[in-house]
Amino acid sequence: MARAAFFDLDKTLVPGSSLFLLARGLYDRDFYRARDIARLAWGQVVFQAVGRESRAGMEKSRNAALEFVKGRQAEELRALGREIAEERVLPRVYPDIARIIVQHQEAGDETWLLTATPQELAEIVAGGLGMTGARGTISEVDDAGRYTGALVGEIAHGPAKAKIAEEIAGRRGIDMLGSAAYSDSINDLPLLESVGRPHAVNPDHQLRRVARSRGWPIHELRTRRRALLIGVPSTLGAAGLFGAGVGVGVWAARRRPRR
Question: Could you tell me which of 132, 159, 221, 231 has the fewest CB atoms within 10 Å of its CB?
Answer without folding.
Answer: 231
